[in-house]
Design a protein that fits this description.
- The chain is mainly alpha-helical.
- Helix content is about 70%, strand content about 0%.
- It has 18 helices and no strands.
- It is elongated and about 85 Å long.
Amino acid sequence: MELKIGTTIQSLRKQKNLTQEQVADTLGVSTAAVSKWETGTTYPDILLLSPLARLLGTDVDHLLDFRVILTQEEITGLTDKMKVFFEQGNVEEGIEFCQNKLKEYPTDLQLKFCIASLYMRYAAAVLDEEFTKSQMIRARDLYEQCLDSEDQEIRESSSYVLSGLYMMTEEPDKALEVLECLPCPDYDVRMMKSNILIQKGELEEGIKLEQISLWHHLRNSCLNIYNLAGVARKQGDLKKSLQLIDMVIQITEVTRIEKLDLMNSNFYLFKAEVLSTMGETLEALKALEMFGEAYQHSMMKEHKDTLCFDALEFGGESALSYDYLKRNARFLIQENEHLEPLHKFPEFQVILEKLET
């Protein structure tokens, strides 16, 4: 952890029109000592910090650049730096960078939330199950601390994610416990507010809220059906599971919601797994090809023809890089045990090659 006190001392000294000799004489140290402070070679003795701050017309907090939490802009900048480590495969350096920032700002819950989200996003940055588990644990510990945040959005988002993490670690009671703390209204405030804004003539904001509300309702409905398909599959009713997943895919295609994120590719992957298990090899390969196409469409982020969501922006600064997504897509199908029967077919290799281009 590097202190920037030297540049601060030099800047304030010049603002006060003081020479290094004058600062040294006042504090009873050598001119060489002041020079070393300003170049960052050494730091002032702790007993000199208060007199030095008074001489330069500031306080010790300013000298030490002391802040309890970071600004949103600073966190965004740090997140961008962290992403570079993970995207380029320097995972250990990335984790070390994150851990050092957490030590530097141990009570900054917004920083913890951002780093936890980063750990989740890049949990599969190294294609190793143990690494993924360790990243999930790191993220879980940070999200648990974020439950004490004064920011409602951070609290609620942390609860949602924790519920999923607890299910992955087979702790259903904990998953229910965090969800019980969340508000569960029977109405959509966004939809109500959008109607008011449209009535007031504030069409742009009203349309945006309406589309956000529609996005969440459609997404949740698709996930509900997707989960039911998963239950049917677990119960051995593969025909019902296939019918349900086809229903989800139809919804995403009609509403064009599949253009907005990687969710639709997951549905095609699920369909390929079920068909492969049923021995429907050719149909499974077709579904897997659709997975590749859906994944690539999402990576290209072409949202121009999303009629119901043309006022919204997706992706942005937090979006994963194209190269990382390609690696992840190949991993999803190459290491999938349900798809092993498909590996021997040339069509499978063609799908892998398409994901490479």
